Amino acid sequence: MNNVTVLIIDDEAPIRKLLTITLESNEYKVSQAATAHEGLMAAANHPPHIILLDLGLPDESGHDLLIKLRQWYTNPIIILSAQSTEHDIVKALDNGANDYLVKPFRTGELLARLRSVVRTSVNNDESPIINCNDLQLNFGTRTVTKNNIAVKLTATEYNLLALLIKNEGKVLTHHYLLKQIWGPSYLSQSQYLRVFIAQLRKKIEVDANKPLHIITESGVGYRFI
Fold this sequence. Notes:
The protein is an alpha/beta fold. It folds into 2 domains: 5-123, Rossmann fold (3-Layer(aba) Sandwich), CATH 3.40.50; 129-224, Winged helix-like DNA-binding domain superfamily/Winged helix DNA-binding domain (Arc Repressor Mutant, subunit A), CATH 1.10.10. The chain has helices at residues 13-25, 36-45, 62-69, 86-94, 107-123, 155-166, 174-181, 190-204, and strands at 5-9, 29-33, 50-53, 77-81, 99-102, 129-132, 135-138, 143-146, 149-151, 171-173, 214-217, 221-224. The strands form 3 sheets. Strands 2-1-3-4-5 form a 5-stranded parallel sheet, with helices on both faces. A 4-stranded antiparallel sheet has the order 6-7-8-9, with helices on one face. Helix 6 (155-166) packs across helix 8. The longest helix is centred in the middle third of the chain and has 17 residues, at 107-123. The radius of gyration is 18 Å and the shape is globular.
């Protein structure tokens, strides 16, 4: 991990100090910013591998800063915020955040989320084959196998699974999935998503009622583990 750089954008000095100690003890390289302006400049001058962004900044909304960053910054952004409403979480994810942790959070969970986005960033070099424990997805042949046995998927099921796997560890909102798979005219058709997620779970999970791969983030969307 010693080559992974993390920029913390948070106005609370004790939080920045705690995060810095935690991350540096796990071999991340850390830089800090206390305002949206400082964070934007720091990201532009020395682009980090990952940004940890607080939404409650003194000079500008973290939501607005997220939108500005996503105009050019393509690496992972994880939101760390005391704002815990479903509206704030969905808004941040729809605006391009890779993940969202509500303060206070456990450091072990943060480190796990960081490892997840690091893996995803590495995998985004677009290898034609992605292995996820018992599952293998081949983008070249558009085929899926489970424990080396072919899984028969419809075109829509494949597209949905491929989108989830490409964003492993990231929460994808209902609106994002509906728009990407069915188009913008289907944003209110959440039943489509529920039906196809249920079908996928029956085909790829050991127990569809206790999924280990496609995890529901209540009121928000789904995450592939």
